[in-house]
Amino acid sequence: MRWRYSVRMLYYTFVLLAFLVGAPAHGLDFSVSTNGVSISQDLQLDRSTSFEGLTVLNHGNILHGHDAMGSGDNKLLETVKGHRYQIDNTIDSSGTFSSTASTAASADFAAYSQDTRAGGDAGYVGTDAISSNNEMHLGTYFDGSGGNLDVHLSTGATEGGAIISGTANVNGIECYNDDISGILASGDLGRSVDGIYSATNGGVGTFGLNAVNLNAKTSGTTSGATSSPYLLTGYRWNTKNPKIQLYLNKANHPSSISDVGSVKSAIIASEGLWDASTSQALFASGIKDTTAQVSNKAPDYLNVHSFMPLSDARTIAYAQTWYSRSTVGGYYSALDSDVVYNTKFGWSFGGSGGSIDFQTIASHELGHTLGLLDLYTSDSSSKTQMMYGYYTGQKRTLGSGDKAGIQKLYGA
Ligand SMILES: [Zn+2]
């Protein structure tokens, strides 16, 4: 009854239209509040963008929706606040985008549903739900020409609980779904996906997702000095000398890589790079064979490396890590970290030709497994790090920031 919508029940209708205005760019700030609930939007739109919003005040509740479509640079921020809950949503796009969203909100409850697509040079969708008992945060992105996002999410919050459900696909990879949502909602886990793809302009792009359910806000990532830059994901392997055992699933090995031994050798060399920079034994020696798949629905506690035929031919590789929300020394506890390499991509084992050097990618993805984030700033000290977010050719050594980061997490 509360959210049934009928013309007879309307007390007030407010329509916003901003269509193809011939100005360089247009912005719009909009807010409405009633009866202990408020919705505000801050829109920074390209002039090619059409935006249509509808707001209905009804018995002290707010129904609010928009349809937006355009290209260029667009940013849409929306906040819903009620009694001891809040929902924030951010869409930030450079390229084509479309977004249909609707919000139903009262003082006690809000649900924000969106179908958002973005393609082009960069796209980001971030949605956060905050209650008195928990917070759920989800951010998903691509950065590099030719990437795409396809997000269908419902973000809900009351004083008693916060939830994000639905699906998020980035470059055709399902990074979030209702299975993952259900596991995160149990309050114990977070999930991180970090990938790399070949951009249409000849460069390399990055994509990923981070989703976590929190009891309370955490301190966020730590960063290193500018001369030795690093960023932390917030998780690490919390067992002393974790001896992380990696597995290789050979089921989908591309025919171009006939020698499985060269794959294992490259991964072992990558393990050795990180192991040599700390006194802890980070990785177990040797790679075991497995038929287990990467853990898309729930952690299986096997760290599986696998070639897979990904639907997006430009995606090179990604790491996905499940972590527990329980902390040791302020860090979440990594549980299961898988790495996927796209069979549709050309791989090499010496960095020759125009193909991607397998060992460089394996070393980078293992940095994610261990708890390091990509570096995006294009200063010279960032570019020399293994965790630099863009592939710049073969790398066989860690940079000073990679070492500082791994020692921050596991000691010198
Ligand atoms: Zn990365």
CATH superfamily name of the largest domain? Collagenase (Catalytic Domain)
**Structural class of the secondary structure composition?**
mainly beta
CATH architecture of the largest domain: 3-Layer(aba) Sandwich
Mean pLDDT: 86
Termini separation: 61 Å
* Record field, number of beta strands: 21
List the helices and strands and how they pair.
Layout: E1 12-18, E2 25-34, E3 37-46, E4 50-58, E5 61-70, E6 73-82, E7 85-105, E8 109-130, E9 135-158, E10 162-170, E11 173-176, H1 178-185, E12 189-198, E13 204-214, E14 235-236, E15 246-249, H2 260-275, E16 288-289, E17 303-308, E18 315-328, E19 331-342, E20 347-348, E21 356-357, H3 358-370, H4 380-383, H5 400-410
Parallel strand pairs: 14-19, 15-16, 15-17, 17-19, 20-21
Antiparallel strand pairs: 1-4, 2-3, 3-6, 4-5, 5-7, 6-7, 7-8, 8-9, 9-10, 9-13, 10-11, 12-13, 12-18, 18-19
Bound molecules: zinc ion.
Zinc ion binds at residues 194, 196, 206, 364, 368, 374, 389.
Features of this protein?
single chain, 412 residues, mainly beta, Collagenase (Catalytic Domain), 2 domains, 19-stranded mixed beta sheet, two-stranded parallel sheet, 49% strand, disordered N terminus, binds zinc ion
Describe this structure in words.
The protein is mainly beta and 412 residues long. The protein has two domains: 162 residues, no CATH class; 176 residues, Collagenase (Catalytic Domain) (3-Layer(aba) Sandwich). Helix content is 13%, strand content 49%. It has five helices and 21 strands. The protein has a 19-stranded mixed beta sheet that branches. A two-stranded parallel sheet has the order 20-21. Strand 7 and strand 8 form a beta hairpin. Helix 2 packs across helix 3. Bound molecules: zinc ion. Zinc ion binds next to strand 12 and helix 3.
